[in-house]
Every structure is written in C-alpha cells, then in structure tokens.
Amino acid sequence: SYERPSSRTEVNNIVSLGIGNSVVNTPENPSICTTMTYNGQHLAPANTVVSLVDRVWYENLKPWQQYEMYGTIMLVHEDGTYEEYMDVGPVVFSTTDIVSGYVDVPFEVDTTGMAGMNLVAFERLTHGSVTVAVHMDINADIQTIHIPSIGTTATVEDAHEFDVTDEIVLADTVAFENLIPGRAYRVEGVLMDKTYNTPLGVNGAMVTSSATFVPTSPNGTVEVTFRFDGSVLHNNQELVVFERVYDVETNTLVGRHEDFDSPSQTVVVRVPSATPVPEVSTTPIPSPTLTPGLSNTPTPTPVAPGTPSTGESLNIRTVFGCLSFVVGFVVLMFVSMKKTNSN
Q: How open is the CA angle 136-138-142, to the nearest 5 degrees?
C-alpha cells in the first residue's frame, strides 16, 4: 500500500526549495515526499522486469499552475555504495484550487543481476525552468524497493549423492537475504529432472513442497522437505530443486532460485548394481586341434591288470569255436561208422 506521513513533521530529510532560496519543512513553501512500491509492497524479484510506481505527495503548490515531476532510480549495492541507475519524466500535472495531492511516477526496471540490492527513488518537482522541491534520501525505507537474494542447498542425508530406497527424503535449505523482517513469506519448491528440463513425475504427479515463515532479520534460512517414492528413479539421474518465495499477504513473487546448472541445488541418484548370478555355460567344447606331422592317435585308456583287451577276447572265442567244430565232426564220424558195421 501507499504510505503517506500523517503530518509534515513525520517526514525526515524532505528539502523544500523556494524560488531563489532553500528552506527545510516550512509550512508556507512547496514540499514533496514519496512512496515507491511494487504491487503495493517494498519488495521485488530479481532477474525480471518489474513495474514500479513512486507516488509523490505534494503540498503548498500554487493554484491553477502546471508542474513537472522528474524521477531517478538509485541502485544501492550490497556494500552500501550507490549509483544513479535511470531517469524518467517529466510527468506533467496541473493544480486547481486544491494545491495538495499526489502524482504517480512509473519506472520499468530490469532487475537482472540485482539480487540482494535495493532501489531508491529520488524525485524533483519543477515549475517551468524552476526547481520547486526535491526529495533525495538514500536511506528512506518508504521509497526503497528491496530485491531479495535466494539460494538453495539440496541434500539427501546431508549428501548430494544418494542410494535409492523405497522413500526418499530430500531436504532443501533455502537461504534468503534482504527480506523485510516481520512479514510472512511462503517458499514453494518443485523437483526438476535435469535430463528433460521438466518437473519430475512420480505416480502421475509433480514432487512439490512448501513452507511458511516469518523472518526476524533480513537474512536467514528456512528448510523445505520433499518426500517421494524412489522406485521411479534411475542410476545417475540428476534432480534439481527449484524454489520461489512469495509475500503471503499479497501473493507476490519476491524471489526465486531456478538454475539447472547449480551444484548446490542438485542431487544425483545412485542405483546399486544387483549381485550377479553365475550362469551355466552352454558353449560347446571345442574339438581337439590336429597337428600335422605328429601322432594324433588318441591315448588309450589304462585298464586294470588281468582285464582282457578287446582283441584278446576275440581270439579266445575263435579257438573255442574251432575246437567245438572238430569235436562235433569226430562224434558224427564215429556214429556213422558204427551204423555201417552193424549192417
């Protein structure tokens, strides 16, 4: 929301310039004060283009006159040094018989590379060629936009590599800088598959988690826990955690860390190899190699003493066969001669 001090005495460092001389906070001279916001808040995300509005309140102008408002954005680095970043204007407006009011000065700012820095609005009010009033306070919170810095460290059991189990518990520590203490924030995370640059799908759904916190100082950490089924993972798969931080009251994005190449927010899957089972060889035994010029006769198998060889058994059978034939012939001849004598 836009904030305006309830009285002039609550505005510090407002310099009012009369024509030809300068005075400070005198009721009879023109004065201005400013409130710069992004979506109604004093926070804006880094690495994008944001539309800022600086509402400049003015008092004690002359009636029925035309005025010009010029704006300057000052970039305040993390070490406190600052520089002029951009100028806009003039925004031209005219008074009526009402000589107090406000005018909005818009700024389009590319916040790439500004994580952890601040933007402060300086304003200058002119009437023609005459500078009527200025508001230039580098320390004024009301005209400052804070750009938070978000970093993450993802681990499984405090390591960036892990063995697959049925349930994976991944802890992502989100470090933040430059938030406004006392406000509620919500950090939302999603697990990404680096192979395809897409969200990791488990059972048809993305793996997400979130946490709400209220910081007590601008810098700190908050942990986001992811639990999911590990059976869908494969060896050497790289998982990257993407995180975004939102202001709870306005649901405005105020910071994010989404980098596929960030080692700190990456974990690597290890799937242990299964114990190999011995296989029965089905390879035929090769035939012996015959060497020319050498005896290739297989070596005979030794036999026990007294055991006849195949050749010896054949000779014995032949002898017995012949002997049986002779005996039979003699018997036949004897019987034949006996019959002849009888006749």
A: 85
Q: What is the pLDDT of residue 297?
A: 44
pLDDT tens-digit series, residues 79-112: 999 999 999 999 999 999 989 999 999 999 999 9
What is the model's pLDDT at position 239?
Answer: 96
With 90 as the cut, is the pLDDT of residue 154 above it? yes
**Cα 173–chain centre separation:** 12
Cα separation of the two ends of the chain: 161
| CA dist., res. 153 & res. 75, Å (int) | 28
Helix or strand or coil: residue 64?
Answer: coil
Confidence of residue 341 (pLDDT cuts 50, 70, 90): low
Q: What is d(CA 36, CA 101) in angstroms, rounded to the nearest whole number?
A: 16
DSSP string, 135-159: E--TT-GGGEEE--EEEEEEEBTTB
Size (the chain), residues: 343
Structural element, H or E, at residue 266: strand 266-270
> According to the model, what pLDDT value does residue 125 have?
96
**What whole-number distance in Å separates Cα of residue 139 and Cα of residue 239?**
42
- CA distances (Å), origin 299, targets 151, 285, 293, 302, 304: 81, 19, 17, 9, 16
The secondary structure of residue 25, as a DSSP letter, is S
**Rounded CA separation 321/335 (Å):** 22
pTM of full prediction above 0.90: no
Cα separation, 162 vs 171, in Å, equals 12
Element (H, E) at 90: strand 82-94
DSSP letters, 113-125, are: T-TT-EEEEEEEE
What is the pLDDT confidence band of residue 185, given thresholds at 50, 70 and 90? very high
> How big is the CA angle at 222 (ends 44 and 190), to the nearest 5 degrees?
75
Report the C-alpha dihedral over residues 36, 40, 41, 44, rounded to 10 degrees: -80
